[in-house]
Design goal:
Gyrase A, domain 2; binds the ligand C[C@H](O)[C@H](O)[C@H]1CNC2=NC(N)=NC(=O)C2=N1
Length: 96
């Protein structure tokens, strides 16, 4: 699960996500929420998912716009862990 994915495997996995793009070895998704408190609630839920997965996104908070960045630091690039958490974040955002 923590093996680096090849470029083509990463692109294929990316095509199954919504709203993410690749910035080299990082997955990036930006989302705008209705308000600052609503954005912080999302951050709080993502923090729970990240703790459960023991995998943590970089999160940029600008008023009600959030940007998540995922990469597996220990592997030096993208692994299944990044795609698994990205999918959970997609599901969370879609449900709100
Ligand atoms: C010990 C623990 O499993 C590691 O430090 C985890 C924690 N969260 C992590 N998060 C991310 N994004 N990459 C990692 O390599 C990573 N490593």
């Amino acid at each position: 699960m923590t093996e680096l994915l090849s470029d083509s495997a990463a692109d294929e996995a990316l095509s199954t996500l919504s709203g993410w793009h690749r910035d080299g070895a990082t997955l990036v998704r930006t989302t705008e929420r209705p308000s600052f408190p609503a954005a912080i609630e999302v951050v709080d839920r993502v923090a729970e998912l990240a703790e459960t997965a023991d995998h943590h996104p970089d999160i940029d908070i600008r008023w009600r716009t959030l940007t998540f960045r995922l990469s597996t630091h220990s592997a030096g690039g993208l692994t299944e862990k990044d795609f698994a958490l990205a999918r959970q974040i997609d599901d969370l955002l879609a449900a709100r």
